[in-house]
Amino acid sequence: MTQLNTAEKLAILADAAKYDASCSSSGAQRRDSKNSKGIGSTLGGGICHSYTPDGRCISLLKILLTNSCTFDCHYCINRRSSNVRRARFTAREVVDLTIDFYKRNYIEGLFLSSGIINTPDYTMEQIVEVARSLREDHNFRGYIHLKTIPDADPALVAKAGVHADRISINVELPTESGLLRLAPEKSQNRIESAMGSMRNAIEEGADARKRFRSAPVFAPAGQSTQMIVGADAATDRDIVSRASTLYARFALRRVYYSAFSPIPDASAVLPLRRPPLMREHRLYQSDWLIRFYNYTAAEVSAAADPMTGMLPLDIDPKLAWALKFRDMFPVDVNRASKEILLRVPGLGPKAVRSILVSRRHRALRLEDIGRMTVSVRKLRPFIVTTDWRPVSLSDSADLRPLVAPKPIQLEMFGT
């Protein structure tokens, strides 16, 4: 390998990390270095930007330890047979970069992943050493997100949780058959075993903290995973079902979806074109319905095409579900339960909370609902208020053209 300086390594390994979507600081423990000898913070607003649930922007140094890899996964740009320029950081170099970037106010945390070098255990040791050195040698109190290696010794993975805020263990592909076909060196059983062990460790750590104040914090932001969308034949229905199972079995904080992107010198078993980015977006919306709107995976899947198993791209899955189950609507906003109101297209958790509070004091009119939402147009066919009942809209044989977003004509020379 040609000797590269730090800037050249950074250019290569930061670019190689861009395919990993599971980079978020949501759920991080709120801590800072005020009145202490430490440096760094997980607070404040922000080169990779992630957003917390309360809207704070966190800037993370997102890099790979190395893009060299002994595995030959067909979909991966860094696979063993890929013809890409290779680079490798030492653990010390990553630590120095992180501290230097933090002191320049470029970043507030680190997202670190790596290709497999030598053995999974050796690679995991290097990743853990970066986090250990930041925490113990430099008293770094910023956010750290580590991508762990399922094949590594469980004890090493557990050490990562001692120093990191969040741990990622990627399932890679939605189906076992897809994993066997495109990443035969990886095993679904080993991946799920590592995720199960991490869940147990996180729960044990949380329990210990409740009983003993001196107990160490263990991965306070939990664990997440990532699935590649469009590299295999998995349908949206398959992906939604798999994500729901992962949430239930491993108490994940997030499942990330990454649309497959064609890579140079690609294997013949891969598709020639990437899936529409809107497909990735619809899967995130479906994920949101399961996590925050109390939909089951079966209900979200019901919004998909019964023949292809794919979610519609032109409308969101919540609207698609409502159009398929029109007998559930219209809903009286002055009487319906919270669970039913969350099923109304155009009403989010915040608007539903406002409705529940406001209707205690007076009956709500259509204009009242309009003030609680971005647009009342999508809502009109699905709600009843004291002054509105969608008689003609409800009787319409084909409601979709009336509520679907209008297509936008792009301008070639528009500003």
Automatic annotation (TrEMBL):
It comes from the Bacteria. One of its GO terms (molecular function) is catalytic activity. CDD domains: Radical_SAM (cd01335). It holds the Pfam family Radical_SAM. Keywords: Iron, Iron-sulfur, Metal-binding, Plasmid, S-adenosyl-L-methionine. Signal peptide: none annotated. InterPro entries: Aldolase_TIM, DNA_rSAM_put, Elp3/MiaA/NifB-like_rSAM, Endo/Exo/Phosphatase_dom_1, rSAM, rSAM_sf, RuvA_2-like. Residues 59-286 form the Elp3/MiaA/NifB-like radical SAM core domain. Its cofactor is [4Fe-4S] cluster. The keyword Iron-sulfur applies. NCBIfam families: rSAM_link_UDG (TIGR03916). This is Putative DNA modification/repair radical SAM protein.
